Amino acid sequence: PTPVILDCDPGHDDAFAIWLAAGDPAIDLRAVTTVGGNGRLYHTTYNARVVISLAGIEGVPVAPGADSPMVRLLKPAEWIHGDNALGGPELPKPTVEADARSAIELIRDTLDAAGEPVTIVATGPLTNVAMFARTCPDRLPMIREVVWMGGSTGRGNVTPYAEFNAWTDPEAVAIVLGTGVPFTMVGLNVTHQVLATQEVIARIEAVGNRTAAFGVELLNFFNSTYETDQGMPDGPLHDPVAVALVARPGLVTTVRTRVDVELHGTETSGATCVDLLGKLNRPPNANVATGVDVPAFWQLVEDAVRTLA
Ligand code: BDR
Ligand code: CA
């Protein structure tokens, strides 16, 4: 299995990313780190502990990272994820404690202990990964790849052209791209294909365990806010697509191209500028997701949830 550190901001879809990473046999989940994004850091850290505890995931340390973006102020996405970033279900008290280390220290120690390169899957703003690059530049060769859910080859979701994770901390995106660490972007152009339809929700519910029941409550809440905010009655389950790409190479198709992020635009701040036609004559710096096998994706999610409590 591929060793993975999951950096996230749970978040409804982040919860499923954690469950997929923990439940899929092709992934060896070594650590979870949290970042301010969908909610403030105390919420995203608490929520990570909740979803790990209730799923019965053991031996995976959880450490909090950055509470705010590199430069900008955090604007939590309560319009999608609710006031506590995990709106809908009542949250059971977590049994898993937060690690005494910071996210940066946990990433460093996990890389040092691995003895092989480790993949970082990031499903929130890239603040922690950028901070790690600044703090531990000597460890960057130990990262096999950063696979990030964020950005878009087309339009955005929080402004007309910016996706939420990119818009929250575009400076972090620029820093991470500048490191030269292999980088894969899984953006809205692909994640908007995996919709939590009623059929999908019924399949998850039929799994019949505690994680599935909690997950169904999450999906119902997520769909209601997506309908109100985005006019999409079936919400797109963005974050696990980045995990699926690592778990099953080929399930998500990618192209090698150039990604830059808009830091200064008056209307487009946080937009990812993906040069699919090679018009800019700049060297490619990323793999960009362009397609996903939707039935295979949902099968992976269902199978992973079945392995949990
Ligand atoms: C991304 O933003 C968050 O709301 C989701 O968790 C996902 O990571 C989608 O734009
Ligand atoms: Ca997220």
TrEMBL record:
One Pfam family linked to the record: IU_nuc_hydro
Q: Which residues form a coiled coil?
A: none
Domain (Inosine/uridine-preferring nucleoside hydrolase): give its ranges. Answer: 4-299
Q: Where is the signal peptide?
A: none
Q: Which UniProt keywords apply?
A: Glycosidase, Hydrolase
A Gene Ontology molecular function term of the record:
hydrolase activity
Origin: domain of life: Bacteria
Q: What is this protein called?
A: Nucleoside hydrolase
| Source organism of the structure | Nonomuraea salmonea
| Phylogenetic placement of the source organism | Bacteria, Bacillati, Actinomycetota, Actinomycetes, Streptosporangiales
